[in-house]
Design goal:
Blueprint (H helix, E strand, L loop, with lengths): L7 E8 L2 E5 L5 H5 L4 E8 L5 H9 L3 H7 L7 E5 L2 E12 L2 E12 L2 E8 L5 H9 L1 H4 L3 H36 L4 H32 L8 H67 L14 H22 L4
Parallel strand pairs: 3-7
Antiparallel strand pairs: 1-2, 1-3, 4-5, 5-6, 6-7
Helix pairs in contact: 6-7, 6-8, 7-8, 8-9
Length: 327
């Protein structure tokens, strides 16, 4: 496997909403300090001293840098001095599996840095969208941050749309027949992934509220409703997750009940046939005993009478079991 020399995906300086130049990391502080300029840097699983360079250039907090250097952080937002450190969980559907990644975001006056870990979403589309709308990009770091969070939530909603379709198909299959073991396992996996999605997206609602009233970022009044829209989308996604989780839970319970019902039906059939077969077995056992004195053995009509008796009892049992719907 090839070893990357650096993890920098993009590092650009913007002025008045337009890209000015691609910059090296060691010049990030110089460009961020220029009036009217914003530095937007994207990293993926940083290696070497890249984060240390950004810490020195942008005055980032050492504790936040330590968190950003590794994955497995829970969603959160902290203020460190004049900047914010935000951790968000991302989700996307790959090969019918919900895969989760992390994005660590540093944002402050004149800069925004995204650090991706694992299968986190790439933000090329976000950057392209922002660069295509320079009037909005000129509103500052808050617009970029909003675009990233909105993009993240939209992906959750996209995953939910696909899971809704799969959930509906499983529900229809449950009503039609007993689920095979692999489908039952899939139900469990889906409910577990929905719980992880809920834990990943729910904190974004609180984050947007705190960002909207944050003293760190200067948020244009026209952007305030944008963060509220993200919050509304988060609430909507939460409701969809809860609804689908409940539906899958009901489907799982229905599958178990169907399986138990079929097992009970099989047990009844086996018990019915066992009762019917017990009659000739009992008669054979009785007359198979080697006693010297069994008077009926000498009777001319003994054999046909025994067969008639056995047949009558067996037919009677069969008819009654059929009426009781055990057969």
């Amino acid at each position: 496997m090839a070893i990357r020399e650096n993890s920098t995906l993009a590092a650009r300086a913007y002025c008045e909403g337009y890209a000015v130049v691609e910059i090296p990391l060691h010049q990030a502080g110089e460009w961020a300090a220029k009036p009217g300029h914003i530095v937007w840097i994207g990293l993926h699983e940083p290696i070497g001293d890249e984060l240390a360079t950004l810490q020195a250039q942008l005055g980032l907090d050492p504790l936040a840098i330590e968190d950003a250097a590794q994955a497995h952080e829970r969603p959160k937002m902290h203020r460190y001095g004049d900047g914010l450190f935000i951790v968000v969980r991302t989700a996307e559907l790959i090969d019918d599996r919900v895969t989760f990644g992390e994005t660590h975001i540093f944002v402050g006056k004149g800069y925004i840095v995204t650090v991706r870990h694992g299968d986190s979403l790439a933000y090329r589309k976000v950057r392209a969208h922002c660069e295509a709308t320079p009037a909005l990009l000129a509103k500052g770091e808050a617009f970029i941050l909003h675009s990233i969070l909105d993009f993240t939530v939209d992906h959750y909603l996209g995953v939910m749309d696909q899971l809704q379709v799969e959930g509906a198909a499983i529900e229809a299959e449950v009503l039609a027949k007993e689920l095979p073991p692999e489908q039952t396992r899939r139900l469990y996996v889906l409910r577990r992934e929905l719980l992880r999605m809920k834990n990943g997206i729910l904190p974004l609602a609180e984050m947007c509220g705190r960002i909207e009233h944050s003293e760190v970022l200067t948020i244009d009044r026209s952007l305030e409703h944008c963060f509220r829209e993200v919050t509304d989308h988060v609430r909507g996604a939460q409701e969809e997750i809860d609804a689908l989780s409940e539906r899958l839970g009901l489907a799982f319970d229905a599958s178990l009940l169907t399986s138990q019902s079929q097992q009970t039906e099989i047990s009844r059939r086996l018990a019915s046939w066992a009762a019917i077969l017990a009659v000739p077995t009992a008669m054979a056992g009785i007359y198979g005993m080697n006693f010297a004195e069994m008077p009926e053995l000498q009777w001319k009509y003994g054999y046909p009478m025994v067969l008639a008796f056995v047949a009558t009892v067996c037919v009677t049992l069969y008819v009654n079991f059929r009426k009781a719907k055990w057969l």
